[in-house]
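note to self — DONT lose this again. spent like an hour looking for the file last time. sequence + predicted structure for the chain T wanted, 315 res
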Amino acid sequence: MAGADPIDRFLAMLAAERGAAANTLAAYRRDLTGAAELLGDLVSASAADLAGLGAAWGDLAPASVARKSSALRQFYGFCVDERLRGDDPSAALPRPQTRRPLPRLVGHADIAALFATAEAEAAGDARGAVRNLVCLELLYGSGLRASELVSLPLAAVPRDAPFLNITGKGGVQRLVPVSGRAGEALRRWLAVSPPVKGARFLFPSASRQGHLTRVRLFQLLRELAARAGLDPARLSPHVLRHAFATHLLEGGADLRVLQTLLGHADIATTQIYTHVEASRLVALVNARHPLGGGGVNARHPLGGTSPLAQDGAGD
């Protein structure tokens, strides 16, 4: 291993010590090999070389630059730990100011339309329709990631306890509650699609050699959205996960509980939903408060038009 390529050694460390997933390792490899194409040997690159990456990455979005810089910072930390070099030049890397975007949201009415369509289509117990209903229940009702859902092993399906045993990012396990209606949908799915001998996954692929792909799940949801009269471009597995979190927070869920349910390693990731909730509250005030233009009195109580209404905040 000592003579192996430093990038390979770094990725092996991420896999062994941090339990990094295959997709994560592939992303790190792309970023590091891309930097090596610009700089040559990464191990011997100077701080000035790294500073020059800002110009080479000038056309990239700030989030992409931040991701690439993060990969290189971790790589150089590894190089120092492994004594591949004596200094860490990563302080010279670009540090773009990024702002985590607010997630796209679907409202309660859209969710109701999705479920109404899925339930109507599954009424005859057609295999594909029941599968769609179960996927919808687990994405919106339990907040699973798309990768967690499609790769769900049969062994994770509850027998007596109303929980799923989920293996999330980095191999971290968590228990996710399954609602009564989701549990009923799961039982229907197992009845119309009984596992064959040797089956591993709850949602097998058409060949039954693997599991349903994330791409296919994405397609199924967008097709369902179109049949429900919604804009398919607004719907994805991740949007349903955001809706699960946001609607729980609206209902009074504690942020720490939400962190556990979503499987976030860092509470800062979960805190994005406090911004979503704050945006909803501002919209509510603008729409319903007497000064907001959409309430019982769009006129300022002392005369004149509400300044909020003048700014169009009540639209």
